[in-house]
Design a protein that fits this description.
The complex is a heterodimer of chains A (205) and B (463). With 205 residues, chain A is of the alpha/beta class. Chain A has 7 helices and 5 strands, in the order βαβααααβααββ. Chain A has a 5-stranded mixed sheet. A 9-stranded mixed sheet of chain B has the order 2-6-7-10-1-11-12-13-14. Chain B has a 3-stranded antiparallel sheet with strand order 5-4-15, with no helix packed on it. In chain B, strands 3-16 form a two-stranded antiparallel ribbon. Chain B has 463 residues and is an alpha+beta fold. Chain B has 14 helices and 16 strands. Chain B has helices at 44-56, 159-176, 216-235, 281-289, 295-306, 310-318, 320-331, 336-353, 365-376, 382-393, 401-408, 416-429, 431-438, 444-455; strands at residues 2-4, 60-61, 64-65, 68-71, 81-84, 91-97, 103-113, 117-121, 135-139, 146-152, 188-194, 208-213, 243-248, 253-259, 269-270, 277-278. In chain B, β6 and β7 form a beta hairpin. Classes of the chains: A alpha/beta (205), B alpha+beta (463). The A-B interface holds A 61-62, 65, 68-71, 73-75, 85, 89, 109, 112-114, 117, 121 and B 33-36, 69, 71, 73-75, 78-81, 138, 265, 267, 269, 272.
């Protein structure tokens, strides 16, 4: 009661947002206002797509370095015929890392490399810094933020990989809190016609 | 220059930071072994010692601390990146005053972690080098040991000044207790970058990096050798390739190690596991106040206060323990010039031949001062002092010097009447020499003086 809840309006403008998700979340915020006495305010979190791209560049860059330690030297399978670190590393990293992981390592390494780091990694970090400032301003007027956790309900098995890199775009609602280091939680707020659960996200300060 | 900082634990974990060459892989943990999920924690003492070193080098200290990742794959680098400082080094823009004149600028000083130590086995040349070796052993004790990297400005113009710069840096590090600065043990490593250009030219040419310099002499010789090697190439109309060369101290030549095809791409980015933090000015101020007097300050002070020669000052101030001993002795009231004479002479001789350190001396500054004061007040002579010294040095006598003199009956005889009796005795025994003297051999006076002294068991005042 009396809690100021900011609803991120750009979340409802997202191209890939399903109608059922939108209405389920709207119902919840209405209930919070009418039945629970909260104050609902519209807030603006700009350019969610760019923030999502920034997240992926940032996370994958870090991952490319975090995963570098898996070289077969101190632990892990070396593989038959590994006579040098070069051979052992190439083998273990090609054979033991899955496709998605190798893709991420390659993209991350590329984003950091000379001639590209300004355009990708540094740009992503600039977006991340601006986001922190943006959140600071937003939270001066509200106590929490609310929006759908995901533009769709859960994928069917195998569908994620069919979408390829495009599936990264579906993270655009959960990514801002990660980038800014804010606490966030996802709660069920109903199901769609197929019976799949719909998620409501609450972001704290 | 890379120096290992004297902390108890490593840079990012609590493993002991120890030189233990005979027990490989005994001071390791998941963090310094780069195991999955291990996270670094910055060591406060590392920051303190790095800052103190930077302050001693007159650097500007950054008001924030930021670490970066330097990414490259190599077996001696457990995480396949090194946590270092790239664009925000803790110290920058410093200077070092060289003892015999001249200054060297310090471009930067930053903190980083040491790599593991590799031992290449079964190489044909048995030189322990990588090329030709069959396999390599890795000791991770050294991985994660905190380092300070110090980069000088291109102010050095000869092998001699390069060596002097290295020595002064070592002196400073030992004075402030930041590092052992021991080249043989690897706690201090010097690499020299050399390029030459014609007089009057401002063009910066390719530089060659010299490695494997294990002594200051090697630093000097390799630098001079490289200057000549490059000059010869230019004179022959050839170009100098940007490369790394290994110094061979036996053959006194350098050999190419690897050609640097452009700069490596280390993909530097801020270390995400260590958030940047502020370094408060009050903390830096406190550390600065904890710095002891630096070698250059001591040298100036000794010159102004004690008027000692440059050569003596250089030796006295080279070792902090020796200079402390000197200062303590002077404080007990003896003449600094005399103290210097005795310390650099007989006492140093004793220290060296017994292979001990200044701090192991049984002769205390108080006793040495007493000895010198007794000479000045003519209670004993210099000759007598020299006779007493061994016993004082090995600490076999417990009491004061005056007590020792009394016990041995070594008081100086200054009573002219007593000395006259000795002299008469000598003259009596050497009548032939007396006639020689009378007939003109005045140099024999020395003979008579010496004989008198001998008769008195060296207790007579020579004057």
């Amino acid at each position: 009661k009396g809690l100021r809840i900011g609803v991120i309006k750009e979340a409802f403008q997202a191209k890939n947002l399903s109608n059922e998700v939108a209405s389920a979340v709207k119902e919840s915020t209405d209930a919070m206002e009418r039945k629970l006495g909260a104050e609902i305010v519209d807030v603006s979190l700009t350019d969610l797509k760019a923030k999502c791209a920034a997240y992926y560049i940032n996370a994958l860059s870090e991952a490319s370095a975090n995963l570098a330690r898996y070289d077969g030297v101190r632990y892990g399978k070396r593989g038959v015929g590994s006579t040098s670190m070069k051979v052992a590393s190439r083998r273990i990293r090609s054979e033991e890392f899955g496709d998605e992981v190798r893709q991420r390592i390659l993209v991350g390494t590329f984003s950091l490399s000379a001639g590209y780091s300004d355009k990708y990694y540094n740009k992503a970090m600039a977006i991340r810094r601006n986001l922190s400032q943006e959140f600071k301003k937003i939270f001066s007027g509200v106590d929490v933020l609310v929006c759908p956790s995901s533009p769709t309900t859960a994928y069917k098995l195998g569908d994620y990989f069919k979408k390829g890199v495009k599936s990264y775009e579906d993270d655009l609602l959960t990514v801002p809190a990660s980038l800014a280091g804010l606490p966030a939680i996802s709660l069920p707020c109903g199901t769609d016609q197929a019976g799949m659960p719909i998620g409501l996200q609450i972001i704290g300060n | 220059i890379h120096v290992q900082l004297l902390t108890n634990s490593k840079a990012y974990c609590s493993c002991k930071s120890l030189y233990a060459p005979n027990e490989p892989n005994s001071n390791v943990c998941p963090v310094c072994m780069g195991e999955p999920g291990a996270l670094p924690v910055p060591n406060r003492k590392v920051i303190e010692l790095a800052a103190k070193t930077a302050l001693a080098l007159n650097c500007k200290i950054s008001d924030s601390l930021k670490w970066d990742r330097k990414n490259y794959f190599y077996p001696d680098t457990p995480k396949n990146y090194q946590i270092t400082q790239y664009d925000n080094p803790i110290g920058s823009n410093g200077t070092v005053q060289l003892p015999f004149g001249g200054k060297v600028g310090i471009q930067r000083l930053h903190m980083e972690e040491d790599s593991a130590k590799m031992n290449h086995q079964n190489s044909e040349s048995s030189s322990g080098s990588l090329s030709g070796s069959l396999y390599s052993l890795i000791d991770f004790n050294r991985a994660g040991i905190p380092l300070a990297e110090i980069v000088s400005e291109p102010d050095i113009t000869s092998g001699l000044s390069a060596a002097e710069y290295g020595k002064e840096l070592q002196r400073i590090l030992r004075y402030i207790g930041a590092s052992d600065g021991n080249m043989a043990e690897g706690s201090m490593r010097l690499d020299v970058n050399v390029s030459i250009r014609e007089k009057g030219s401002n063009e910066l040419r390719n530089k060659v990096e010299l490695k494997n310099l294990n002594s200051f002499r090697a630093v000097q010789e390799s630098t001079d050798h490289e200057i000549i090697r490059q000059a010869k190439l230019y004179e022959e109309g050839q170009r100098v390739r940007q490369e790394t060369r290994l110094w061979d101290d036996k053959a006194k030549v350098s050999k190419i190690m690897r050609v640097k095809e452009g700069e490596s791409d280390y993909r530097y980015f801020p270390e995400p596991d260590i958030p940047a933090m502020k370094l408060p000015k009050e903390v830096v101020k406190k550390w600065k106040s904890e710095l002891s007097e630096l070698p250059s300050e001591k040298r100036s002070r000794y010159k102004a206060e004690f008027g000692l020669s440059d050569a003596d000052i250089e030796i006295l101030t080279d070792d902090k323990d020796l200079s402390s001993y000197f200062e303590s002795t002077v404080e007990f009231g003896s003449d600094p010039k005399e103290v210097s004479k005795w310390l650099l002479g007989d006492v140093s001789g004793y220290i060296n031949s017994n292979r001990i350190q200044v701090k192991d001396l049984r002769l205390t500054p108080e006793r040495l001062s007493e000895l010198i004061v007794l000479i000045k007040s003519k209670k004993i002579s210099g000759k007598i002092a020299k006779e007493l010294l061994p016993e004082l040095l090995n600490g076999s006598f417990d009491g004061t010097v005056a007590e020792l003199v009394r016990e041995k009956g070594m008081e100086l005889i200054t009573d002219e009447k007593v000395i006259e009796t000795f002299a008469r005795e000598v003259i009596g025994k050497n009548s032939n020499k007396v006639s020689e003297y009378r007939s003109g051999k005045t140099k024999l006076l020395g003979f008579f003086a010496g004989q008198t002294l001998a008769v008195s068991n060296n207790r007579a005042d020579p004057e």
